[in-house]
Design a protein that fits this description.
alpha/beta; 7-stranded mixed β-sheet; disordered N terminus
């Protein structure tokens, strides 16, 4: 059962790893905020201007790196159009170069025949580039039309869903038209990652780019060159101890403003202001409705001092609830005097989840652990080595940390082996339910060489199987001949002695096959038991 659970866990981890490994990254960055014109004079105060760099970093800290995000069709269109534009600019430079080369030929000193040949060659190159530019422009038009049709088809499909139908035709359920080759990729989940994998590093363009402005082509090109897909920028107004922040989320390569929110907060609590801004901008970044988590922490004593961490970030609960973007998240609940409650889950598909967290009292103390058959050696428990004994080990004292224990026992003759030889020892497992202060437990780890044992039992199982296969032809042949002679005896052309002779042979061959079969089953059971010996032995209460 434990092996089955371990296999399922490994498969789940591999699936999650594959999903996150092959998904494309969507890089989110932030730039230093700026003061609004009405409050530009406050920039002279260094204490106030520090908030311009601190706020974007605090907001990025609240963004869960690694969450899933679904881009829009228009965003995918902008990426395609940017690629086509880059290609057109390159073609245009090539065109200008070839035209200049053609015009320079008229000023060269060469024969008329040779001049016509050179000009014809250049005209051919120019025509090819013109064709490529025309083809590029046609692709641009086709991409726009393709996305418009895709959006219109989706809207029509959503309208059809609003009308209740008693049944859906089987064709719509099971038959899907094959997509033609599209210029614009269809939206698929992307993994949100921070700019340069750090919330402290802000995007800082050059002075010329800053002078051009956020809406300029130069600024968009600078951000896109840094592989930034989304950028947080804001203008700040300060009056007294309070500031107003107008936060914009710009999507690149186009640099269009996808969302704009405004929040007011106090300079004395910048973290609270950053959390409020992040909570409202996260659904826009993820391009999906936020998921609301309702927490039920028990017992009441643990709930009063509980701290909730979502993906390692402490989250303040508002009426026992919190908002997160859809995707895979790790939730931890900490409370003094209680063991940590932790779970990783994919929160998506519904607008809210009910998270029940029954915290267990943190158990302290020690329990004694001894071998069922004492022998000289050394214990290793949860990676910690206990003192080695040259004599038979009576017992060791193990601290309780509220978790299950996986340990190993090595024989004394092999504990200090530095020659690279195989180590004689075995693993053991102690359940949480057995651990209590003052408890006395015993283990009986299998210290045999598992590899050698399994190989030996496998060979004997194959020998038994081979022996069984070798006896079966004789058994089948003798049984067939006996049945044939028996039928001949009833028809009067076979003697009784011949029938008895083959009956005796049949019984002998059958007996040999039964013995070989029994031997094979016996060795197969021994092989399966040897294979299961790699599992750690369970600890038991000492009698």
């Amino acid at each position: 059962m434990r092996l089955c659970r371990l296999s399922c866990a490994c498969i789940l981890i591999l699936c999650l790893f594959n999903l996150t490994s092959f998904a494309e990254k969507w890089v989110l960055g932030a730039t230093k905020f700026t003061f609004a014109l009405s409050s530009a004079d406050v920039e002279k105060q260094s204490s106030d201007s520090e908030i311009l760099s601190m706020l974007p970093s605090l907001i990025l800290e609240q963004i869960v790196s690694g969450s899933a995000r679904m881009p829009t069709d228009k965003e995918m269109l902008e990426r395609t159009q940017e690629k086509l534009l880059t290609e057109r600019l390159s073609l245009f430079l090539q065109l200008s170069k070839e035209i200049k080369v053609r015009d320079s030929l008229y000023l060269s000193h060469m024969s008329e025949r040779k001049l016509k040949k050179k000009i014809a060659s250049q005209e051919k190159k120019i025509e090819e580039i013109n064709s490529q530019i025309d083809e590029n422009l046609e692709k641009s038009k086709k991409a726009d039309k393709e996305v418009e049709e895709r959006i219109r088809a989706r809207e029509e499909g959503e309208n059809e869903k609003k009308d209740f139908l008693p049944f859906v035709p089987l064709k719509k359920l099971f038959l899907f038209p094959k997509d033609e080759e599209n210029l614009v990729d269809r939206p698929k989940n992307e993994i949100i990652s921070l700019y340069k994998d750090s919330s402290a590093l802000l995007f800082t363009p050059s002075e010329n780019v800053l002078l051009a402005g956020l809406d300029s082509r130069e600024y968009a090109k600078a951000a896109w060159t840094e592989n930034i897909n989304g950028l947080l920028c804001a203008s700040v107004s300060k009056y007294g101890r309070y500031i107003s922040v107008t936060l914009e989320l710009r999507i690149y390569p186009a640099g269009k403003v996808q969302s704009c929110i405004t929040e007011v907060g106090s300079l004395d609590e910048p973290l609270l202001l950053a959390r409020n801004l992040a909570r409202r901008i996260i659904p826009e970044i993820a391009n999906s409705m936020p998921i609301q988590l309702y927490f039920d922490i028990s017992p009441v004593e643990a709930e009063e001092n509980a701290k909730v961490l979502i993906d390692g970030v402490v989250t303040e609960l508002d009426k026992k609830s919190a908002y997160i973007p859809s995707g895979v998240h790790t939730i931890e609940v900490l409370s003094d005097g209680y063991a940590i409650g932790e779970a990783t889950y994919s929160f998506e598909g519904v607008p809210f989840f009910y998270v029940h967290v029954p915290l267990q009292k943190e158990v302290t103390g020690t329990f004694s652990l001894s071998l069922k058959e004492p022998m000289a050696g050394q214990f290793f428990v949860n990676g910690m080595a206990f003192e080695k004994s040259d004599e038979a080990l009576p017992s060791i004292n193990v601290g309780i940390n509220g978790m299950s224990v996986l340990g190993q026992f090595l024989l004394d003759s092999e504990a200090d082996n530095e020659d690279g030889d195989k180590v004689a020892g075995g693993f053991f497992y102690i359940k949480e339910s057995l651990q209590s202060d003052g408890a006395k437990l015993t283990v009986s780890p299998d210290i045999r060489d598992k590899e050698e044992l399994i190989d030996k039992r496998r060979k004997w199982a194959y020998r038994g199987y081979t022996a069984l296969l070798l006896t079966l032809p004789f058994t089948f042949a003798s049984t067939g001949i006996y049945m044939n002679n028996l039928n001949g005896f009833y028809n009067g052309y076979v003697e009784a002695d011949e029938v008895n002779k083959w009956n005796h042979r049949r019984l002998v061959c059958t007996g040999v096959s039964l013995v070989a079969g029994g031997f094979f089953v016996f060795e197969l059971v021994r092989y399966l038991r040897a294979s299961s010996s790699v599992l750690p032995a369970n600890a038991k209460k000492a009698r």
